[in-house]
Amino acid sequence: MKNIKILIFVVLAYLPFQIFAQDLIVYNSKYLSKPDSTLVFMPKGKSKADQLPLVFMLHGYSGTYKQWDAISNAQNYANEYGFIVVLPDGLYNSWYLNSPLLEKSQYEKFFIEELFQDIIAKYTPNQNNIFITGLSMGGHGALSIFLNNLDKFKSGGSTSGAVDLRTLGSKYGIDVLLGKNASEELLNSFSVIENVKKLAGTDRTFIFDCGTEDQFYKMNNELKMLCDQLKIKATYISQPGGHNRAYWAKSIRQQMNFFKTLI
Predict the structure, then answer these.
(1) DSSP per position, 196-229
(2) DSSP structure class, residue 53
(3) Looking at residue 79, which CATH number applies to its domain?
(4) Gene3D superfamilies under this entry (predicted)?
């Protein structure tokens, strides 16, 4: 792929303690307005020849590719679960979607056509065991990408996800991407709570959760009720907690345990 820079065995000092990241890849994409940085963690003692499972972890609104590492220590998770862990940058407020208004904000196209293909080629994971999850904006993005690309992922996840864009109005940059007067039909077409209907009548499964004190708790409960009505095999975890790092550090372990059971 053109215009990709790879920094191998980089020590990152953005935390109070140092995390050893094996690869930092910078993508210059025709679909994005600026470069996208992605961290990749290989489990200790494993190689690309092992064809390991792989999980993409998407950060939240206003975060960066460093967010999940700061929350969960991605190298430790890679070591413990035996997954290749990939942390892309969502460019602050991309919502991981293809904007119908902004030519250089086509994030899902970038993800699937460039980043995904490049990661598969470089790290040779087991392509039957590829997962995607995320928090908040990244929770919506992870499930959206999963639902739009079921042939590429075994399962998806969301923690504290904003799974219904119809309720956000002009918050969090949605209006910039979809328009200030976006129609209900357009908002439906991008919302997880509508796109989840693609799983009806299938045996595909995913996991999502939300804290009971979270601002997105109501919409996640509504997603659970819809899954029940459609008999979709979703695992939903409702537990005490808010929209914060302490909650996500707990919930991501639950999601990793879930993904591990599917291998």
Answers:
(1) GGGGTTS--EEEEEEETTSTTHHHHHHHHHHHHH
(2) -
(3) 3.40.50.1820
(4) alpha/beta hydrolase
Structural domain boundaries enclosing 240: 4-261
Q: What is the pTM of this model?
A: 0.92
Phi and psi torsions of 68, nearest 5°: -65, -35
Give the CA count within 13 Å in the CB-facing half-sphere of 163.
32
Q: What is the mean pLDDT of residues 112-116?
A: 98
Exposure class string for 99-112: b at 16+ Cβ within 10 A, else e: beeeeebbbbebbe
- Give 246: exposed, middle or buried? Use CB within 10 Å, 0-12, 13-18, 19+: exposed
How many domains does the structure of the chain reveal? 1
* pLDDT tens-digit map of 33-56: 999 999 999 999 999 999 999 999
Which amino acid makes up residue 156? G
The Cα–Cα gap between 72 and 69 comes to 5
Number of residues that make up the chain: 263
